[in-house]
């Protein structure tokens, strides 16, 4: 029944396009609503969201627009608290960025995550106004969850408890196959489940899981790679492009395949469909739209600096993700990085400070490799262009 539900949803779309789920404030209710009004599937990236926020956004979207909504989640793997030595090495790796952004006054101001730390674990500057070693470590530690916290990531069970009453049309997952109980409940509610794959081995595991479709995420895709292995090497891909991955998965898998990565215009959509894709998922093309929640500096670089280029990096989160090159990605190429999602917590304060300063050089500016095709336009204008094959 869930497979039939997915086919029915896709058949009613104006175009076979899913707006990609993107975490970090990009997928605001207003943005997703603008996508729904244009007849496409809109998505929320609930990777790190608390249950209360998930409920609020899913209820709000129903008041603003009608149409199919996709709720996306990460499949986190267990991770241990970093040792004091590992934390210090990772903190030292961030020192140049911290010193470039943080004033002495900032170093004594509480940051996100400080309330989760035992007070005795946070070093303070020995002299007010001095940005020394202790101030540097205070800034870093206040960005990381304390070792007394049992988990370093949200409970998927608690997140989904907020989802079931709201009945989104689709559930999707990144970084692996969710527990079996997720499929049991989703199928009982006739909610299709989609899962990302970056290679055939992952796609076959998805096919055996009870999912309804495979999101074929090619290497061109912006944001986090959906690799099941959190430490997968940079060059470990079965395909050199999204189109090639779609071709391979369509040949070897029975489930519908949804192409993701480098899909920027009508021609890209048609190319993916011609290789066997049932639909496409587009993220970067929507990032520069007026309605998106991306920062002004992020949008400016997407449309104004085609030569900046993209890079796959673990620097911001501990997992491979593709984003625009900046000073931080260059600085961190050979420096110590904590496991995911610890590194994400470690760099949180840095990214927030960079955003407050409107400085793009220390923000995670996720973008696909074809970002130079982005335009500063409304969602309506983008969708109109996508229709002009």
What does the model show?
- This protein is α/β, with parallel strands linked by helices and 389 residues long.
- The protein has two domains: 2-78 and 155-294 and 375-387, Alpha-Beta Barrel (TIM Barrel); 84-151 and 327-362, no CATH class.
- 38% of the residues lie in helices and 12% in strands.
- It has 18 helices and eleven strands.
- The strands form two sheets. Strands 1-9-8-6-5-4-3-2 form an eight-stranded parallel sheet, with helices on both faces. It has a three-stranded antiparallel sheet with strand order 7-11-10, with no helix packed on it.
- The two termini are 33 Å apart.
- Mean pLDDT is 89; it is low at 110-132 and 145-150.
Fill in the CATH topology of the largest domain: TIM Barrel
CA radius of gyration is 21 Å
Reading side by side through the largest sheet, how are the strands ordered? 1-9-8-6-5-4-3-2
Using the 3D structure, state the CATH architecture of the largest domain. Alpha-Beta Barrel
Main pleated-sheet profile? 8 strands, parallel
Number of E-type strands = 11
Total of DSSP H or I helical runs spanning 4+ residues: 18
The figure for the number of domains is 2
Under CATH, the homologous superfamily of the largest domain reads Aldolase class I
Order of helices and strands: HEHEHEHHHHHEHEHEEHEHEHHEEHHHH
Mean pLDDT: 89
Percent range for β-strand residues: 5-15%
* Poorly predicted runs of 5 or more residues: 110-132, 145-150
What is the straight-line distance between the termini?
33 Å
Class by alpha and beta content: alpha/beta
Helix content: 25-40%
| Overall spatial form | globular
